[in-house]
Design goal:
Number of strands: 8
Strand order of the largest sheet: 1-2-4-3-5-6-7-8
Helix content: 40-55%
Order of helices and strands: HHHEEEHEHEHEHHHEHEH
Mean pLDDT: 94
Radius of gyration: 18 Å
Shape: globular
Structural class: alpha/beta
Distance between the termini: 40 Å
Low-confidence stretches: 1-9
Strand content: 15-25%
Number of domains: 2
CATH architecture of the largest domain: 3-Layer(aba) Sandwich
CATH topology of the largest domain: Rossmann fold
CATH class of the largest domain: Alpha Beta
Number of helices: 11
Length: about 290
């Protein structure tokens, strides 16, 4: 009998951190919430694998200052004469994770730009959030004189959906393994560190008060309701980080999207799969 896939949007947390946060929570739920909020906002930096280091040889690297968020953002650019495509990576990722997509689109004549999100890769900052990612997309849309297409992975896909909720000149959107409900992301993080649901409520209120927002308003299935930009949603059935049910819910609420599901590629290998690159190429140039 096939197991039912859970609606997870996963976050890996080391055991020592869970034990520490649980001990703090017993003494002071508010303090444990503040520590958890800091950890939640701090991406993990991983070593760049050889394939990405090798791919650096084919692109131009630069730094851009994004004044709105006071961060220097690293970029990777595959220059060409065609329309501009901006690539947006996910949480604890980096721009060069998307080099396969960049190279594939570049071969079709597109001018492709990827960047390290704030507090990721070579960009400055220790903490970040989806608001800063949205601001960075906005900066490049203006700085590059308009973007033809946006391609986003994981949280990068969510940031793109949020950027496009206001009228834009973007012609094509592609998301890969994008998450859906912000509340679920908060709940799964709190569960991963072993804290109580009440602490999740505290953390949600903390962020909503700090940034003067309602976190639910940034959920993908909420912001896409009024969007009409042609969109391709790609998601793997075996994604262990963000469940395919997220894509199922997003597609129900989008007015102009196509969903393609893959199997056996997970959350990251999907970025390098030849068939997936083919789907992206066909969609972008159609």
């Amino acid at each position: 009998m096939q197991k039912q896939k859970k609606n997870h949007q996963g976050i890996a947390v080391p055991k020592w951190l869970r034990v520490s946060l649980q001990a703090i929570e017993r003494l002071s739920p508010h303090t444990s919430m503040l520590v958890a909020s800091y950890v939640f906002s701090k991406p993990i930096k991983f070593k760049m694998p050889f394939r990405e280091q090798k791919a650096l040889e084919a692109c131009t690297q630069n730094m851009h200052y994004v004044a709105e968020i006071d961060r220097h953002v690293a970029t990777y650019e595959w220059e060409n004469t065609g329309n501009k495509i901006l690539l947006v990576h996910g949480w604890s990722g980096r721009g060069m994770q998307l080099h396969g997509i960049a190279e594939s689109l570049h071969q079709l004549g597109y001018h492709v730009i990827a960047f390290d999100a704030p507090a990721h890769g070579k960009s400055t900052g220790k903490k970040t959030n989806v608001l800063q990612m949205i601001a960075t997309i906005s900066y490049f849309d203006k700085a590059l004189g308009g973007i033809y297409g946006l391609v986003g992975h994981s949280l990068g896909g969510m940031a793109i959906f949020n950027y496009c909720k206001a009228p834009k000149t973007i012609k094509k959107v592609v998301t890969i393994g994008a998450g859906d409900l912000m509340g679920t992301i908060f709940e799964n993080f709190i569960a991963a560190v072993g804290l109580r649901p009440s602490t999740c409520s505290l953390m949600t209120r903390h962020f909503e008060t700090k940034f003067k927002i309602k976190t639910h308003d940034f959920s993908s299935s909420v912001v896409v309701k009024e969007q009409h930009i042609p969109t391709l949603i790609l998601h793997d059935e075996d994604d262990k980080d963000i469940a395919v049910s997220c894509a199922d819910n997003i597609i129900k609420h989008h007015n102009n999207a196509t969903l393609i599901k893959t199997e056996g590629l997970g959350h990251r290998r999907i970025l390098r799969d030849e068939a997936v690159l083919g789907h992206i190429n066909t969609f972008i140039k159609s």
